[in-house]
Amino acid sequence: MKKDNEKLKNSNFIEACHNAVNGLIYATTTQSSIKKQLVMGVGVLILSLFYKLETTQFLCLTFAIFLVIFAEMVNTAIETVVDLYTDKYHPKAKIAKDVGAGAVLLMAINSVIVAYFIFLNETKIGELNKTIFESVVNSPKHLIFVSLILVVIATLVFRAISSSYNKKVPVKKFIPSGQTALAFAILTSIWINSQNVLVFALALMLSIIIFENRLEHKTHTLAEVIFGSFMGVLIVLLICGLTLIR
After folding, report:
1. pTM (2 decimals)?
2. pLDDT at 96
């Protein structure tokens, strides 16, 4: 009995992070509603590039997106625990599931309100009638932050596609290194923003260390680590490349 309890505990911080990522993968793989919310979230973040958002507005927007996904994941956890204890109808089980679904609905309403005040007021719509990429050019920090979020989402999508929770044993396929992707995305962002050779060299050293660390621990293959690094660089360059389009 003691051994069973020990299995439920994380032995270290790395294992805790790994299990948390597994939870994200399970949610994005099995829950169609979360898949749709991720797609909508990416669309909203890309749309925000065409608005000259202030820092507080952008924070409210990202919080609204993540809160909807968070509520949906909590609702999934509640439903899983309830189904674990009973597969028959019970009033209290219904209450638990209804309350979880209510939390999702509440966060969805909150996101609609946030989107209305950010995107659908006359001032913001008028900004689009000027130069559509003008606000993007004037907000490099906004660009970089959106790029990093998209790198994380792209990594989760690849991991979700490469893992199957429909079988008892997950089938592991080609999974790009998320840490390497994020490291090289940050490296590219530092160069675009600072263009300081010393700062870039230090960031490059850290990125290479992460690259080697993934290989030494045999967490990923060489191809997965290389693909992850290129993915991080390309996503940042793609998003920032929008500023060159007139």
Report:
1. 0.59
2. 86
Which stretches of 8-88 are DSSP H helices? Answer: 13-30, 32-48, 55-85
What confidence score (pLDDT) does residue 8 get? Answer: 63
Same domain, 23 and 94: yes
Q: Which of 131, 158, 182 is the last residue of a domain?
A: 131
Closest CA to 26 of 61, 76, 69: 76
Name the catalytic one among 6, 15, 54, 72.
Answer: 72
122 is catalytic: no
Of 8-12, 28-32, 159-163, the range with the highest mean pLDDT is 28-32
Report whether pLDDT(204) > 50.
yes
Phi, psi angle pair for 47, to nearest 5°: -60, -35
Last residue of a domain, one of 115, 131, 147: 131
Which residues lie below 8 Å from residue 122, measured CB to CB, with a gap of 6+?
none
Q: Which residues contact 33 (CB under 8 A, 6 or more apart)?
A: 72, 104
Q: What is the CATH number of the domain that holds 94?
A: 1.10.287.3610
Same domain, 91 and 164: no
